[in-house]
Each structure stands twice: as C-alpha cells, then as structure tokens.
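Supplementary notes for students who missed Thursday's class. We covered one full example, reproduced here. Read the sequence, then the structure, then the short commentary at the end.
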Amino acid sequence: MLLTEIQRVIEQVSRDKGIEREILIKALEEAVGSAVRKKFGSNMDVEIEYNQELGEFEIFQFKEVVEELVNPGFEIILSEGQKLDPGCEIGDSLGVKLEVASFGRIAAQSAKQVIIQKLKDAERNAVYIDFKDRKGEVLNGIVQRIDRGNIIVNLGNTEGILRPKDQIPRELNRRGDRIRSLIKDVLQDTRGPQIILSRTDPDFLIKLFKVEVPEIGEGIVEIKGAAREPGSRAKFAVASNDSDIDPVGACVGMKGSRVQNVVQELKGEKIDIISWHVDPAKYVCNALSPAEISRVIIDEENRSMEVIVPDEFLSVAIGKRGQNVRLASKLTGWRLDVISETNYSEAMQDSYDSLMQLEGVGISMADTLYEKGFYSAEILAEAAIDDLIQVRGIGEEKANQLIDNAQKYLLEIKNAQQKEPALTDTESTDEISDMENVRDSVAEPQPDDVDIADTEAEDAEDVVAENTEAEAEDAEDVVAENTEAKDDDVAADGKDATIQRPADSDNGNNGDPKITETIIK
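Structure (token representation):
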C-alpha cells in the first residue's frame, strides 16, 4: 500500500469503525515513527508530519551542522548544509527528508503491528465513550453465547454481559434469542470496556413502564418508586399531576393491556401498582394492600412504623414468606413491624402491667406515663431525665428514682429468665413421671371394682385383662387428644412479622414525642 493512499484509508476506517480522524492520524504517525526507529535506530532525531494536501506522511531527520564530519547519522558538514539551506550556520539543526522507499520489510511489519494495536485501542475507547453516558438505558440485543452462567449479548458494535445475579430466576435463554436489558454500568478494563446489563434492577421495571405508558413520558403521571423480587412479585408506586387522570388506571391500560406487556417481558412477574400518598402512613397502607390496616404508630426519628392489622388480615399483610411486607418496606423506605390486634392488645397490657410493678408507681402515675409515651418499664429505663421531668408531677429526683426502679425491675426479670430453663426441665420430667403413673394406674386392675366368684376365677382374669387393655387404650387416646389440642392451640396463635430496615439513628429515644399514632378508618 502506497503512502499516497493513506488519506483514502483514513476516511474509510474512520467511517466504518466510528473512530475520529485525528485519532487515526496520530496512530499512523506513531506507527511510521516506530518503523523509522526500527530502520535507523532509536537515537535518531526524526519528526513525522501528515501533509493533508498531499495525503502523505513526511519524515524529516534532523542533523547538526559541523565543520568536520564525525557521526554521519547525526551530523552534516557546513558545505552540504548550505546546499539545503544557504543561510545555515555551524551549530544549526537541519531537517533532511527521508524517502519512504528506503524502509525495509522489517520496518514495514513493525509499523503494521503498531497500527493494528492503535486501532484496537482507539476502537475500545470509542465504545467506552459511546456507552459511558448511556447508563440506565434499555437496549435490545441477541444472545451470542452462555459462558459459565454469564450471558454474552451482542449489542451491535460491542458485547454486553448479563451476570447470573442480574438474570431473572428460572428464565431460559438460548443462543440467538432476542433479549431486552438495562445498561447497569460501564467499566473500563484492560481488555476493553465491559457493558454490565441487568434484567433484575428496579429501574428496568420503571423504564419498561415509561415505554408502555405515554402519560409518564409526558409528565402527567410520575413514578415515585419501585421494589422488586425478580421473577416473583413487584410493587410500583405512581402519582398524577392532573386530578382528572387516574395514575393507576393509566399504567394498567385498557383491559390491562399496558401492564400485561410489562408482565410478559418480565416472564410472568406479578406487579402491584399502588397510588402514592404524601402522608407516609397512608402510603404504607396502600403499599400493604390488599390487607386492611387498623392503626399505624410512627417513629419518625428511627423511621419505623408499627402496623396493627385485624387478626384475619395478618397473613395477607405479611404475604407468602413475608414477601408483601418486605416489598412494602423497600418501596416506602420505612421499617415496618406488622402486628395483629390481639397480640398488640396483649403487648400493650403487659407493658402497662410492667409500669404498675415498679415501686412508687400507682394507677394515676402509670396512666400519666402511658399517655406521654412511656409505655413500659423498658422504655422508662432507657428514658432521659430531661424527657421525664416534662411529665406533670415528676421532678428531677423523682425521675432518677423511676429510672433506677425500672432498671432494677428489668434486672430482676433477666435473672429470673436465666433460672427458668432449669426449672422448666425439672417440671417437664415431673410431668412425664406423672403421666407414666397415670398410665400405670389405669393399666392396673382394681379388685374392688370387680366382683367375681371363686369358681369363675379363670374367666374373671380374662375379663379383667380385656377391660384393663381397653381402659389403657382409652386413656392413651385421651392423653393424645389433649396433646394434639394443645399443639393446635399453639399453632393457631398467630406470630407477628417484623421487617427491619437500617434506621437513621440507632440510639433514638423511644419516649420521644415524635412517635405518633394514626388510626386508619
């Protein structure tokens, strides 16, 4: 290839590879410089310039003008220098143009290798520049191959990687399948840019709804948040800037057409579209739907809520394996404790009783403390003196006394609980012994209860044996039925679900007036 054809090649490569023309020219200049150093040595002072008018590279070797020639490769005598530049003097540096035809095959091969490497680097850099500002964009690609669980997706001019954690569980992808995914991140690596794709990110759900719902693109419907458990269930909160537009209905579409398109793309993932509300308590109630909420107790400092639901809605609010309340917590950003009304009433009664157990606390004092947010002895033990003295009838001395009494009471409870397991083991052993004694007593025939003649002794022994076995079986059945009934009662007693999220402050004051209670009607 002649250097005069360089200009045409530069234009074509720049157009095909998407590499800027200046970057290609710089890469070729470095390649020609490498060929020159390969031919004449690395100590030669050369300069390479691209002549755009001629479309070729000009190579100049600079030599110093001297009176006596010692090193012909770096020096030129004055008489020869004056032929090139009549005005040159001793000590000047003259540029002598080199002929490209003088380069050998080895020098040309060296230039080729440099050009290939520079083109690869320029192409990788162009891909990185193209994708680095496209994070959060949804792309269509084709599954090219699957490598150790990673799906390599062909995106056209580059490849993207879909890692196992970014794939929807139980989703099957084969080579040649079309796949839609979100650009999660763009990383610069020594082997080139890595385009990290995701189908599990909540932003992927948001982007899909933006495509399906025109009102979102127009700004009429606003997306407030999304939470997902990929492949299973998702919650999606929306609000409307126009009172005449129903945000939930806009996202659902006519006969559910819009939401169904998103569900099909996510391989059957169930989506709950809820209405956002400025009131956090109502927002949480909407997020926990379809469960009904009785009341909500808000702790703003710890950003947590205690949600009380009717007993029949406890399992609905918690969801399968806690999924409903877990997604609601992610969506709203609040720590949620879901409690049934029965357990809540019992807990509040136990808390009130713990106040009554404290020395120096009567009914009126317990009511006053309860009304001010000091619901239990535990809260009172952790309370600050400044908060207690705000309660009517409590001074600094009384506050210190109440805190000390509460701490002593909790210490006694703790010590009693540590001794309780040993007592429980002893009681269990006694119960087993009593049960065995009962069975033995039933199995033993009572002579007073059977009146048999001496002449019928043998028949009487058979009757006694049959009666004894029947009575023993009946007694065991009664014991088994009582045991099963107790187990059913224990199993029927509902458990509370607690979903914990990182609190803004771990040392918040539980008696703080920021704790409010909202009754949902």
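Commentary. Confidence is low (pLDDT under 50) at residues 423-429, 431-513. Residues 253 and 316 are 26 Å apart (CA to CA). If anything here is unclear, bring it to office hours.
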